Amino acid sequence: MKSFRLKRLFNARSGRCFDVAVDHGFFNQPGFLNGIEDMRQVVKTLVDAGPDAIQLTLGMARHLQEIQGRHKPSLVLRTDVANVYGKTLPENRRFSLMIEETMLQAVRHDAVCVCVNLFQIPGAPEVHAECVENILRLKPESDYYGMPMMVEPLVFQANAEAGGYSVNGDETAITHLVRQAVELGADIIKADPTDNVSRYHKVIEAASGIPVLVRGGGRVSDRVILERTQGLLQQGAAGIVYGRNVIQHPQPKGITRALMAMVHDGMGVDDALALITA
Asked: Per-residue pLDDT for 66 more than 80?
């Protein structure tokens, strides 16, 4: 049954996926709601734009799944909430907690896969251990319910420098954490881009046949995100999972159209740029 759901996640035309992540409100951080204050409107806008999937929490999944018709993005369900994204790590209790009956809730919400974090945070090895425990607990449930498990290996910069939500593009750290996620049983990987995009094939190689979708990171210019996307696809990425570069864009439908054309049709950067305002 996992293969059935994966066929709804990956586009039939290209075999790739463009997933828009809109789960930021789950983490209770200042600034995370920029551009997504009213999720009813956000989801409607994204459905009209037509990416392959939208990544949402249990509390927001209804805005997607209540929309009538068959032709709408698939649901990727975020399963874990953490308190480690701020400029300063909490002193008393750092956590990454799972929702209860994770896979059963995913089935009830008609998700095509779930997404779970695998954090590597300077000075917080206990959070890494908690993430590993979460994944180990989810793996047999994933197999039992036929629900694909997307693991998000996330290599933090030091929080005092950039906060945990900024990409650390160290090739070695990303490659090793991706490999651990695969060894733990990931069906799909959602990973950071490397600083040197031309080296991303090493991450793909470490995933050993498990499809790798690439995180978008912080908001950048249209040309930068499109050039990065082109490079990552050329290196073998199976698609992208972008959040802020879509939901904080002044034309979310236009940037989605441009990224879809690159991911599924191999469109070049200049032509894709023209689609944003078309």
From this structure: yes
Q: Domain span at residue 205?
A: 2-276
* More confident: 192 or 86: 192
d(CA 32, CA 25): 6
What's the pTM value of the predicted model, to 2 decimals? 0.94
Answer whether residue 164 shows pLDDT above 60.
Answer: no
CATH code of 153's domain: 3.20.20.70
- Is the pLDDT at 162 greater than 70, yes or no? no
**Strands 96-98 vs 80-82: parallel, antiparallel or unpaired:** antiparallel
φ, ψ dihedrals at 160, nearest 5° = -65, -25
**pLDDT of the residue at 158:** 79
Distance in angstroms (rounded) separating the CA atoms of residues 276 and 268: 13
Say how far apart CA 134 and CA 98 lie, in whole Å. 7
Per the structure, the count of domains in the chain is: 1
Q: How far apart are CA 169 and CA 38, in angstroms?
A: 32
pLDDT on residue 32: 76
Rounded distance, CA 256 to CA 148, Å?
A: 24
Side-chain-side CA neighbours of 200 within 13 Å: the count stands at 25
